[in-house]
Amino acid sequence: MLGLIAACVSACTPGVDSTSTDVADAIYHGGTILTMNGTSPTYVDAVAVKNGVIVHAGDKDGAMAMRGSRTAVRDLAGKSLLPGFIDPHGHFVMSLNMISQVNVSSPPVGPVTNIPGLIAEIQAFKDRAGIADDDWIVGWGYDQEELAEGRHVTIEDLDPHFPNNKVILIHVSNHGAVLNSKALAEYGIDETTETPFGGVINRLPGTNAPAGLLMETAWLPVVSNMPVKSGNELLEVIEDAQQLYASEGYTQAQDSASRISEFSLYQRASAQGLLYIDIVALGIFTETEAWLAPGAYSFGQYDGHLKLQGIKWAQDGSPQGKTALMSAPYLTGGPDGEEDWYGKPIQPKSDLIAQVHAALKTGIQVFIHANGDAAIDHAIEAIEAAGVTAADDRRPIIIHSQFQRPEQIDQYARLGISPSYFTNHTYFWGDVHLANRGPAQTAFISPLKSITEAGIPFSNHADFNVTPLDPFFILWTAMARESRNGTIIGPEQRVDAYQALRGLTTGPAWQVFEENRKGMIKEGLLADFVVLSANPVETSVDDIRDIEVLETIKEGITIFPR
Ligand SMILES: [Zn+2]
């Protein structure tokens, strides 16, 4: 890194008149510049940037002709320059909240492998953070599938150790949590509480008493009333949160499912000039009426680094939480041992159809979370019922599209639907899906090969903080599709590094109508770059995870390292 900067000092010699409109602010050369422009790898020798925009992407002579006395000439010294990564689907707000929560994830993300270990992590966090009795303790990344006991944590595990704190362990899907008795009482959940439509409340065996696990619509009222830091406290950590993205090479983050209160916080941050990566927010569907109120919000345009792009619905839960809605039953039953279990819709299909229609009618882009094939059917039906066809270029996005059936890809093509896939599932839950759903259905999760062959733009996300932001881990799972146990999940769906990179660059740019601004190194587009230690296209699948982000550049300005 220092070498790159030092190279500029000696090379920044006067060229053309610095007042000329043709003078670049910066010129990059001397490395591998992968443009992502086209269906196969294309390179240029040099890039020139002015006022945050790429003004030349081509030969070195053409770039050097734009050199002036103040032009920073950057020798990449053999490193690779790519477009900045674009987060296709994730939850920026989590990066703000996680700072005050305990990591109860399992390896490789966190340390927890069994219930005593989980209790010890919470206890250590309580001591470290000086959390008093009566206060809240919130954990993130809890995954019952990775516990040696092979079951959910219950109040019987938590209460003896934390009788005086309100404990919430958020499930790794972010679609539920385990609460201890004190936290359940805080929300008035007891043996008289009925399980709501689309929800899950596990009960202690042989009783109606809640065991601790709440999912989907049973969890929504809790998550809406979680203990949160004040807006001012969150503004203090928004720099750290953005740095987390920048350090992984992202120049754009997504906050999928923003509440109005959260969007207001981003507006404050933007007004105070605190944002330096782009944040694309999708309004949460539970507040659709407020988002769509006439004159309340404008969609699809940036105000500084903040853009409200559309509305996001969730039509089912997660397959690892067994709340994804399937057309065939789970082979291993439901989350509370139910037999003949298909998962659940979050809301009746008719509600989804009505709301999606209302949004599309007002010209607003729709994003629908659907994991199970039956939930994907609901989403397709809602989009089709609104009269959308591919020719309309409305770009409805079905987030995850995880357990898609092959013929649903044809329906996507017909209606112009684009999927945001999640190949990290092949590693984190591939083995779980094999047990729950069987080999045929599991082999087709996140089918990057099939969607590429169908010519449909796609993206591939981490769903941060469900899995880590690490873009090279995403590339690896798209290329290797190897589970924790070493099973290859659908080898025919593996893609090469270039196709995998499209899921983090051109695909997500297109999905939010920014293909003329981002995702490629091309004249006229923003100078959003990442400098990598190696070119992913020339790196073997075994080494892809070792690539490092050396520098991240947003509109010509280095934002990592800062
Ligand atoms: Zn998500």
Can you describe this structure?
It is a single chain. The chain is an alpha/beta fold and 562 residues long. Among the domains are: 2-78, Urease, subunit C, domain 1 (Roll), CATH 2.30.40; 93-223, Diaminopimelate Epimerase, Chain A, domain 1, CATH 3.10.310.70. It is built from 20 helices and 23 strands. Strands 6, 13, 14, 15, 16, 17, 18, 19 and 20 form a 9-stranded mixed sheet that branches. Strands 1, 2, 3, 4, 5, 21, 22 and 23 form an 8-stranded mixed sheet that branches. β2 (43-50) and β3 (53-58) form a beta hairpin. α12 packs parallel to α13. The chain is globular and about 80 Å long. Mean pLDDT is 94; it is low at 1-19.
Short description:
This protein is of the alpha/beta class.
Q: What about the largest sheet?
A: 9 strands, mixed
Apparent shape: globular
Count of alpha/pi helices:
20
Report the uncertain regions. 1-19
The whole-number mean of residue pLDDT values reads 94
Report how far apart the termini are. 12 Å
Number of strands: 23
Small molecules held by this entry? zinc ion
Overall radius of gyration: 24 Å
What's the architecture of the domain at 93-223, going by CATH? Roll
Strand content: 15-25%
Q: What is the top-level CATH class of the domain at 93-223?
A: Alpha Beta
> What name is given to the CATH topology of the domain at 93-223?
Diaminopimelate Epimerase, Chain A, domain 1
Q: Helix/strand/pairing class, anyone?
A: alpha/beta
Helix content: 25-40%
